[in-house]
Amino acid sequence: MMELYAQKLELDQQKLIWEEHFSAKKLMEKLSLLENGLGLEDIMVGELKKLRLGTYEFYSDIAYRSYAVCTLGSYSKNFNHKYHPNIFGKASLTSKQTLDEVNQHLFYFIMYVLSIIMKLPAWNVLTILRQSFLESYTQYLAEELEHDESEKELR
Questions:
Q1: Which end of the chain is more exposed for a tag (fewer CB within 10 A), N or C?
Q2: pTM higher than 0.70, yes or no?
Q3: Structural domain that includes position 86
Q4: Distance between CA 112 and CA 34 in Å, rounded?
């Protein structure tokens, strides 16, 4: 498909190929089919879908924002609650969100890779690793939910 798209085609042809194969809607449909075919429990497939859609929304918001939002995004709040330029990165109150985002993407990737590998007969030993990973992530979700609820009560 990429070869077809990369060829020197007329602009109208490029748009048609893009809409047919690479539009956000088409990619979401294909990813949804892949997630359903991984052999995971329905609740885990739902979590993967929620994570994928949240990631898409998160990065869409970043990519299509105004100048002001992009400029403010280059500042971070330090532990004294003052804003400072954050050009090269630093530990701040928002570091947790960034690390959570990275961990979620790692989880998403690992679930895909492990689910694909599990379908290979020689790798059945990974069942234990996969199950323990699922259990630890389920525990993490429960702790996050508990943490969110306690924060709501404090407000």
A1: C
A2: no
A3: 37-154
A4: 9
